[in-house]
UniProtKB/TrEMBL annotation:
Ranges annotated as spanning the membrane: 18-37
Organism: Corallococcus llansteffanensis
Keywords associated with the record: Membrane, TPR repeat, Transmembrane, Transmembrane helix
Domain of life: Bacteria
Name this polypeptide is given: Cellulose synthase
Keyword Metal-binding: no
TPR repeat ranges, renumbered to this chain: 192-225
Length: 528
């Protein structure tokens, strides 16, 4: 057989095949390189969107949260299975639902959270959002178990601490809740939402200066944090601060072109209502609270301010209004304790006592831990409650019950100890128990004049007048006026009090001392 040329044929076949294979490999490699480059670009875009979303969410306003969600929606078109982005989306929607009550945000939060959990996300947003949603839904036992399991696994984050704080608050364990809120705010100091949550918790307790301070920290993190600004203004108005100091803030917020969520609309209207009350315009205040409740019917501050406006009008509906506010947020001491005080001032002692009974029922089973590890009833440590109850009893003429309540306030040895000493001392003075009264009053009104309670010095002055020691009594009354003036009491009111004391001295047969008294006290109220 002629085999000539066969080797050339094989050579040609091998060369073509090799070239073909090289071409295929080149195409595959090019495709692989293009795929990897594209994948890297997508990853970079995903990371960029995630960073932008986190930065926007950190500002804490509803518009910022919406912008963050838009970034995440774009991210999902590039990478639908980004589990940590799903968790962040769940966290944002939970925030919009829990703090701003945006309709439908709760369902979106659950959907995103379920996807993040199905993908195995282990981010802080996933666990924090789940815990916060459980608390918000009222599933306190499930929330407690989840937080305990996470704590046993060593999980720790400001988001989980915030969920723990809100759970404790719902359970009425307020002192523990305050500590947890403070820890969360400290751990997430760059996020205004945490300090704002702490501020609202303090406001619910009627701790106005501390609440304003917490809101101040929130606005330090973001000077334009709307919820902190408007709620800080409300806290200042509740505390009786000069309304001119917050009016400009409220005017600016009202003219803000940014869309407001239901809660922000309601909170702003409540602040406007409180501003109207400072001008003795309860009808205007009622109109504003109606607007607030229309924006968000669950706003407990709107219910509370509405009750305050009705009390200012001496309307019989005030009692029912306060009861509605307390029912909406039973673990907020401000609503019950201040409500009882206002009802008593209106002359509705029965209504005041009913509010306090509701308060006692709410906290009766709550236990707190002492520094030595013992568990005691929370009411035993609640000096504010016993002071409020004592005041109601005293004005109702039930002096023995009032003394018993004041004794419980003293036994609590809380931050209101000085107030409890004064309250019992003043009541003993009214019962002409001068020795017992002086023992208590002297503790808060020392002879050096270093005390901070004008009314205690005034009570001690009255005691000394009753005992015929007019010189020492004038000294105590002088301390009372000095302290009152330093605390911002108008000069006109100081003058009225000074003249009343002058008349008391004259009717007691002390004309020379009356003249000397006015000479000494005059500079306190004379216009500079």
């Amino acid at each position: 057989m002629d085999t000539s040329g066969r080797g050339d044929w094989k050579r040609r076949e091998g060369l073509g095949s090799a070239l073909l294979q090289i071409g295929v490999v080149a195409v595959v490699l090019a495709a692989a390189v293009a795929w990897f480059v594209h994948r890297g670009q997508v990853r970079q875009e995903v990371d960029a969107h995630l960073r932008t979303a986190r930065a926007a969410a950190l500002k804490g306003n509803p518009g910022d949260l919406a912008m963050a969600q838009q970034q995440l929606e774009t991210l999902f078109t590039l990478s639908p299975d980004s589990r940590d982005a799903r968790a962040l989306s769940a966290d944002i929607q939970a925030e919009l639902w829990l703090d701003h009550h945006v309709p439908g945000a709760d369902q979106k939060a659950r959907e995103q959270l379920e996807r993040a959990e199905a993908m195995g996300s282990r981010s802080g947003e996933r666990y924090g959002a789940r815990a916060l949603l459980l608390v918000g839904e009222g599933k306190t036992e499930e929330a407690r178990k989840l937080l305990e399991e996470l704590q046993a696994q060593g999980a720790n984050s400001p988001k989980l601490t915030l969920a723990q704080a809100r759970l404790l608050q719902r359970q009425g364990r307020l002192s523990e809740a305050r500590i947890a809120f403070a820890r969360a705010a400290e751990g997430a100091w760059r996020d205004p939402r945490y300090s704002a949550a702490y501020g609202e918790a303090l406001l619910d307790e009627g701790l106005f200066p501390q609440a304003v301070e917490a809101f101040s920290r929130a606005t330090t993190a973001n000077p334009d944090h709307l919820l902190s600004r408007v709620t800080s203004a409300l806290a200042q108005l509740y505390s009786g601060r000069n309304p001119d100091s917050v009016k400009a803030t409220l005017d600016e917020l009202r003219s803000n072109s940014k869309p407001l969520t239901p809660v922000l609309q309601a909170r702003l209207a409540v602040a406007q209502a409180e501003l109207a009350l400072t001008k003795s315009a309860p009808d205007e205040a009622l109109a504003q609270t109606d607007a607030a409740l229309k924006a968000w019917p669950e706003e407990h501050y709107a219910l509370f301010t509405r009750a305050r406006a009705l009390a200012a009008k001496h309307a019989p509906e005030a009692r029912q209004a306060f009861e509605a506010a307390v029912a909406k947020r039973p673990t907020a001491p401000l609503l019950a304790l201040d409500g009882a005080r206002l009802l008593q001032a209106q002359g509705d002692g029965e209504g005041a006592l009913a509010l306090l009974d509701t308060y006692e029922k709410t906290f009766r089973e709550v236990k707190v831990q002492t520094t030595d590890g013992k568990s005691v009833p929370a009411l035993d440590r609640d000096d504010r409650y016993w002071l409020a109850r004592g005041g109601v009893m005293e004005l109702a003429g039930r002096q023995d019950d009032a003394l018993a309540a004041y004794d419980k306030a003293l036994a609590a040895r809380g931050v209101g100890l000085a107030r409890a000493q004064y309250a019992k001392g003043a009541l003993l003075l009214a019962r002409k128990d001068f020795e017992g009264a002086r023992t208590l009053l002297s503790q808060v009104a020392p002879d050096t004049g270093a005390g901070n309670m004008p009314e205690a010095y005034a009570a001690l002055g009255e005691l000394l007048f009753a005992q015929g020691d007019f010189a020492a009594g004038c000294q105590q009354h002088y301390f009372a006026l000095v302290r009152a003036r330093a605390q911002g009491t108008p000069a006109e009111l100081i003058a009225t009090r000074a003249n009343d004391i002058k008349k008391r001295l004259e009717t007691s047969g002390q004309p020379a001392m009356a003249k000397a008294w006015l000479t000494e006290a005059g500079p306190l109220f004379q216009q500079q």
